[in-house]
Amino acid sequence: MNAAKVLEDLKRRFPNEPEYHQAVEEVLSTIEEEYNKHPEFDKVNLIERLCIPDRVYQFRVTWMDDKGNIQTNMGYRVQHNNAIGPYKGGIRFHSSVNLGILKFLAFEQTFKNSLTTLPMGGGKGGSDFSPRGKSNAEVMRFCQAFMLELWRHIGPETDVPAGDIGVGGREVGYMFGMYKKLTREFSGVLTGKGREFGGSLIRPEATGYGNIYFLLEMLKTRNIDIQGKTCLVSGSGNVAQYTAEKLIQLGAKVVTMSDSDGYIYDPDGIDREKLDYIMELKNLYRGRIREYAEKYGCKYVAGARPWNEKADIALPSATQNEINGDDAKALVANGVFAVSEGANMPSTPEAIRVFQDAKILYAPGKAANAGGVSVSGLEMTQNSIKLSWSQEEVDEKLKSIMKNIHEACVKYGTEPDGYINYVKGANVAGFMKVANAMMAQGIV
Ligand code: NDP
Q1: Are 354 and 379 within 8 A, CB to CB?
Q2: Are 123 and 78 in contact (CB under 8 A)?
Q3: Which residue numbers delimit the Glutamate/phenylalanine/leucine/valine/L-tryptophan dehydrogenase C-terminal domain (predicted)?
Q4: Sheet of 55-64: strands edge to edge?
Q5: Are the beta carbons of 70 and 64 closer than 8 angstroms?
């Protein structure tokens, strides 16, 4: 494989999809050497078959708002690769959603799911519908209209969606309800369901907790204790909330959280009570993070991200490309020695270079945030054996999966000077399993 040539071809065939190109470039540049040790891969053009999704569904979603106006949005499902299990990956509802973003997410998901050691392929879906400012009834009508089209393409053994930005327990519940009505089947077709109807304990917490379990493994390699460390968290949604919760439990100090309008800086640290306030504000009232600063009298910076604040550890947990090269330089200059990604691809390629050149601990999302999909995989297992595991059982399994992912990264990513290149480690480990499965299944 000539990685530059493969990428050039993809850019020509699929223009205007910069996030997809970015994700592919990052993977190709790290797996090229390993790939080329296996001439049998190139004989069957494995790389193109792995980069281009198996199929993409695109559809119009039509729904009625509270004023009786008819609205249209675009809906998508990208089924990227099912060599090691049914397609699996979240659904994102956000005004920025387009096909290129979902293709990047589905591509990443394929490697991430492979790393979890569970039998899941990669997929992703979503819509440019924004739940922001919508009533409950509008969100329900939208979810139902979305599922009216999506249902024929998914199934517990085919493709199992979950939540992502803008899709939490409420949206998964509405989509599950419509799927059940259309198919007359109660199945594990979605994960992240409510506890009462097949949801797994610890699924809401899994991505944030998993990220911290991964961070602990990284810190262990340098004998660093997390207690008392100052942490920057971005976002204030599902991943950010449970990242902060676990950090607080472990005695770290969380000084920032954010939303798409700005960030708060609380030098005293966000404690349990303040985090409860954020959870209520975001999950119940769907308010803005600015209101935290008004309530607790701390700094609020509109239109900015928290990366210029002084800290030890950064946990980006909002969205893609939220840390650019300059942000990364500021983080390193301010003493940050570990970055562990809760979000998917939050660091630009320039930012990743800055972290790696500075030899700080840096974990890409596909390794560090794999806890979410791992517990989704555990939810699928519980649904199919029709049993529910206890909180402790699921949490233990999550810890052990994150530990295994860390070990795989160390195995494939340790460089001659001992520095662990987690990007390379995660990509090579994730890739080899999918590649071997594809080779065994012939040209399909
Ligand atoms: P939520 O919708 O619960 O929260 C997203 C948070 O990020 C909100 O605070 C939101 O602010 C902010 N945000 C979203 N888009 C932007 C933007 N363009 N610029 C600045 N801030 C933004 O989503 P999740 O917490 O579930 O997801 C966060 C990240 O984690 C995503 O990258 C997702 O792909 C990734 N992830 C999620 C998993 C999960 O299990 N949920 C699993 C693995 C990864 P606002 O409220 O203003 O919209």
Answers
A1: no
A2: yes
A3: 200-442
A4: 55-64, 70-81, 122-127, 87-93, 159-162
A5: yes
Q: Which tokens go with 418?
A: 């001992």
Kindly give the distance from the C-alpha atom of residue 235 to the centroid of ligand 1, in angstroms, as a whole number: 6
Ligand 1 pocket (Cβ < 6 Å) reads 94, 96, 163-166, 168, 207, 235-240, 259-261, 317-319, 342-344, 369, 372
Provide the 3-class DSSP secondary structure of residue 411: helix
Q: In the structure encoding, which two tokens stand for residue 353, read together?
A: 């270079």
Which position has the token pair 């699929």?
14
For 333, the token pair is: 């200059």
Helix, coil or strand: residue 432: helix
* Closest ligand 1 atom to Cα of 112: 43
Q: What tokens appear for 115 in the block?
A: 């790393």
Sign (positive/negative) of CA torsion 101, 133, 146, 181? positive
Give alpha helix (H) positions in 303-421.
325-333, 349-357, 365-368, 371-385, 391-413
Counting from 1 in the atom list of ligand 1, the atom nearest the Cα of 96 is: 18
Start-to-end CA distance of the chain, whole Å, equals 20
- pLDDT level of residue 236 (50, 70, 90 thresholds): very high
Question: Which domains, and CATH codes, for the chain?
Answer: 3-185 (3.40.50.10860), 206-363 (3.40.50.720)
Q: For 388-432, how does the pLDDT look when each residue is reduced to its tens digit (9 = 90+)?
A: 999 999 999 999 999 999 999 999 999 999 999 999 999 999 999
pLDDT tens by residue, 246-266: 999 999 999 999 999 999 999
